Amino acid sequence: MKIQSEYKIHTIGIALLILINITNNIPSSRMSFFSVILIYFILAMIITIQWLGIVRILKFAWKKFPEPHQVTNRLLYSGFQALCWAGLWMIPADYLITDFIHHLTWKISFLGSVRYFTNASIFCVTVLGISEAIYYYAKLRQNDLEKEEYKRIKLMSQYDSLKQQVNPHFLFNSLNTLSSLVRTDPVKAEKFIEEMSQVYRYILQNNNDQLTTLTKEIEFTESYLNLLKTRFGAGFIVKLNVLHSDKFYIPAFTLQLLVENAVKHNVVSLEQPLILEIFTQANDRLIVKNNLQKKAMPIPSAKIGLSNIITKYKYLNAPEVIIEESETDFIVDLPLLKSKS
């Protein structure tokens, strides 16, 4: 639909320009019918090339300076190139119309060239002004929609976090594990209670935060991982190699969502241990990787966790979150942010 609409706009724009030029420039009566058709055909080709060239320049400027606040950069960049392009094609077009059609001769003069370039400038300013106004309004509208979508996702995330605090299944598993430990290993049970309290404390303290430091997120994740390791034993293997740092930030609960996603959708057992790796790379990226061993009966999922993470990074204008799935592994590649703003 977008391609069809763009095609219609180009067709209408080119057709109007050709019609305006034809109606405003009646050929000399001394010209033959064939000459008139040839001149108008050449004129139509020049106008088409001119139009499509300016459209291409505009698209490149929008790609290079996409944000609404970059309007000055867009206009300067596209304006200069569009003037050069339009002037290149407008001058021969105007000479073709005013001299060849009306006088059957070519006349080149400085004043004539100035007049032709002025026409080119007017054409450029008109096209650029209309196109920039449409683009600026559309981009503002898009940004508003993205902000509203982010607010919706954030509210959903907060709701999910609150549900996690009283999730019967989570509490049942945790309390069941704790009950067994109290009877068999009181010291380990005390450690389990401490880790569980740290998990809930982090959730309560950071539920409204957009970003948290990498150090805090790792400390919270370690507590959450310890609960899972206590529950699954040797069936859950964790390889954590992350340098704690307060200079890097990450959306709160990102790692917990990814760990939960791995445990939820894969087999975790002594016979088939789930191996989870979390490590940083030199290019300021954080990798979360697990071996892929999907459950025979897949658990229904709305994929809210992954979409929530991706949406947060997009809203923050951060580098892209990369998700890769092979026959043996599931990998999520996260950018680490250097600023909390």
What do you see in this structure?
- This protein is of the alpha+beta class and 341 residues long.
- It has nine helices and seven strands; from the N terminus they run ααααααβαββαββαββ.
- It has helices at 2-24, 33-64, 71-103, 110-165, 168-184, 186-206, 214-232, 254-265, 304-315, and strands at 211-213, 236-241, 249-251, 274-281, 285-291, 322-325, 329-335.
- The strands form two sheets. It has a five-stranded mixed sheet with strand order 2-4-5-7-6, covered by helices on one side. A two-stranded antiparallel ribbon has the order 1-3.
- A hairpin with a 3-residue loop joins strand 4 (274-281) and strand 5.
- Helix 6 (186-206) packs antiparallel against helix 7 (214-232).
- The longest helix is centred in the middle third of the chain and has 56 residues, at 110-165.
